[in-house]
Specification:
By secondary structure, this protein is α+β, with helices and mostly antiparallel strands. The chain has one domain. The chain contains one helix and four strands; from the N terminus they run E-E-E-E-H. The protein has a two-stranded antiparallel sheet with strand order 1-2. A two-stranded antiparallel ribbon has the order 3-4. 0% of the residues are buried. The mean pLDDT is 77.
Amino acid sequence: MRDHDILMGRLITEIIYVHSKLMIIDDRSLVGNRDSEICIVINDLEEEDGRFNEEAVLVGKCCSSWRKKIFEYVSYVKLP
């Protein structure tokens, strides 16, 4: 994504890189008298075409769609 503006009478541009991670925190495990931690491993066997650094790649179908749905939910931006 590229941004531009005029600063001190000069046109400037910059590239904006979006790097995101998701963290879900279960604060119930902080109570102290119980432990609600779990571990989950998702092994996505179905793949679909995707883009990474403007190159075609294969991405996991389930994880990719989950990531896009979460991004749309938190950013209110509809992805293609």
